[in-house]
Amino acid sequence: MSSAESPPSPAPPESPASAARPARIRWSGLTDRGRVRANNEDAFLALTFDGREVRYLGKTGESVIDGREFIFAVSDGMGGANSGEIASRMAIDRITHLLPQNPVPRSGDEHAARSAILTRLFASIHKDLLALGSSYEECAGMGATLSLCWVTARAVHFAHVGDSRLYALPLGGPLRQLTADHNHVGWLLRQGRINEREARSHPLRHSLHRAMGAGLREAEPDLGSCPVGVGDRFLLCTDGVIDGLWDRHLDELARDDASLPAGESPAQRIVREAVEKSGRDNATALIFEFLDGPTPAES
User: Within a domain: residue 16?
Assistant: First the structure.
């Protein structure tokens, strides 16, 4: 891996529904090892916390927001033997233990405060992965991608390193990738030098410029914030999903609730379709959406 610079993340889209403050949030997530890999090096996280407790969320569910904050994240590990699997789970575990311990100041620039906390969090995870990678021969070079959303009733604050992705699907607007892929192929795509089809078959598509751990000196995250409103949806996914599905398919599958098979969540459908279309890599998807109206009993 090289340590080349990556352009900043694209500006987040405006939400047509941003004036309507959501009262509830619904989510679904799933990870699958695919049809080729012997183990699953992907991991995802869904949790909620307030000033009193931290609570893990299930693979699917719905909750009132009401002053609570939510964390959604995906990570794709890399490394020999089982070290990639260890790396992604270690990244997710550190989020759970470190982030709720960092309260946001009640005054001042909220986005700047959250960005500073996320920057410290990513630096701590990166340091821990480097330490483990240098301590054990079988973990040498271990690393992971990490894409994280810190969600409130007003906004989604995000931090990102690697080639997992965060998409926004605003109500009434098109799907848009909020994160930049930290590899040479992602840079070529953003420069317009190749198209989405060429990016899928490019020989350097899995060579990352930036990752957590992986023997790299630094892993400074891209940071951003996106206002939210009722009807807005967001999708986090690893590159195994991207390998199987085009952006237009992700847009359709993440929104079309009417055609959702009985008993299947939006994330389950996306992962199933990705594995059926490709399955060469582990595939993970996590979708959350903002709702209004009555607040049923929490899942």
Answer: no
